[in-house]
Amino acid sequence: MPALADVTPDEVWQTWLDYYQASGYTVTEGSRDLAGETLTLKDVKLALDAEGAATAVAIPQITLQATGDGKVRTVYEGDMIVTSSSEGNEDIDGFAMQATIKMPGNETVSSGSKEDMTHVMTLPSMTATLDNIEAEGEDMPAMTASVVATNTTATMHSVTGSDAKYDTTMSLEKAEFMVNADGETEGKMAFSGVLNDIEANGEVIGFAHMAEAQTNLAAALNKGLAMNGALKAGQWDIAFDFDVPASAEDGTPAQASKGNASLAGIDLTFAMSKDGLGYQVNSDKTNMELTTSELPMPISYSMDGSSFDVQFPVSQSDTPAPFKLSYSIDGLAFGDAIWDLFDPSKQLPRDPASLDLDVTGTLKVLKDLLDPAVMDASAEMDDEAIADGEDMAEYTPEPTPIEPVEVTINQFAVSAVGAKLSASGTLKPSEDGSMDTPVGTINARYEGVNGLLDKLGAMGLVPQDQLGGIRMMMAMFARPGDGEDVLTTDLEFKDDGSVFANGQQVK
């Protein structure tokens, strides 16, 4: 908590200036008037230019007034105009757009000291409306778009100086959005939704390096920039409707799609520092329904839940660092219309499917992965050589900036159509340090595979004359397990590159 002290309107405004400027914005004031303990700023503009993209916010008036108890009340007055543009390139068209933001009844109360300040914002409603959008200088189809946020509260705590940091918490009762477009040749589009009970928090440490992060994130992280945050939301509901007319020029037929989706809840966390990148998301019950003119039946599916978790080192180090990758899907169920496409006689079990993947290990990071030069080298190919017809076999890619030390499959499990597969094991580089010929073991278990093959053969999805060959291949790699229709495989990878399955060499 900040120390008890009085703040002035000038000090509060300077705190915001420091924040915007450290974020890379240029701030200009049309006029400034200090009358007693009230500071009035008019025609304030925030501008951000970065790599062919520009964003600007025009604020008619900001009034900062001392409340008489050591605090300052700030009000943003008038409609704010936001403009954004981006230069086009060979992949995407350039665009320009303008939007208007209305925030009636807004206020922010600041307290503490100029070195350690807390801002509490109350925003009964906020409406952002798209005014116009152009692509490559031409008007887009007639389009309306808006976002309406209801009952927003937020608290921001700032500490200035060489160790500047910011932490924020926010809650939002509801956010509604809609997009409608109507073009003579492009067709009609309607997209709308509502998000409920949103809560978020975040922290930025080493905020003085934020501007540098826009051009060289690795350098900023190595200097002490660190970020983390979390988002949690309740029910999401989304609906969409697309109607594209036929094209006489290229013979494209008319297309129409309509559907809706719902998500019972979601929460995610994010963290980034020189120690690594972390991202985790968990979602609750999901439902999706879609009808489209391109398919003869409606599409529907549901999922009880899913999760994704990645933790990965990003900074150069000679010491191996841990990593993690996990992904899971629980209770994935498809509508009967999808099943009936390939199983009209209902021979396959239609129980919900599941997937569980959990991989951990250690690796060396040989170069800062978020350094622009490293990122460009990793993504770049010799386009000129390819265009000139050079043999790709002669192309030498850039050395990978990461070197695996150990990879452990803690869990790989799949359950679907009456069959189950699970596997686990650990692999390490061979003596020459290469993962091209890893060393280690993987143990796998299969349940219900023979029964599934019988059903696929009866359905004609697998020709009867191929079933024998498939079962022979299975016998080479698998042996009977501890139950009916259960098979197991123990794979052993050795230093000389040889591979053994259940003690029998297969490579």
Please describe what this structure looks like:
By secondary structure, the protein is mainly beta. The protein has 8 helices and 30 strands. It has helices at residues 9-22, 210-213, 217-222, 336-342, 372-379, 383-387, 449-459, 464-477; strands spanning 26-28, 31-35, 38-50, 53-66, 72-77, 80-86, 95-102, 107-112, 116-135, 138-139, 142-159, 165-183, 187-205, 226-233, 236-244, 255-263, 266-273, 276-283, 286-292, 299-303, 305-312, 321-334, 353-365, 402-416, 419-428, 439-447, 479-480, 486-493, 499-501, 504-505. It has a 30-stranded antiparallel beta sheet that branches. It is globular and about 90 Å long. Mean pLDDT is 88; it is low at 381-390.
- Class from secondary-structure proportions: mainly beta
Number of strands: 30
Biggest sheet details: 30 strands, antiparallel
- Give me the number of helical elements: 8
- Which percent range fits the helix content? 10-25%
Using the CA coordinates, give the radius of gyration: 29 Å
Low-confidence stretches: 381-390
The geometry reads as globular
Q: For the residues shown, what is the average pLDDT?
A: 88
Q: Determine the N-to-C terminus distance.
A: 64 Å
Strand residue percentage: over 45%
In oligomeric terms, what are we looking at? single chain
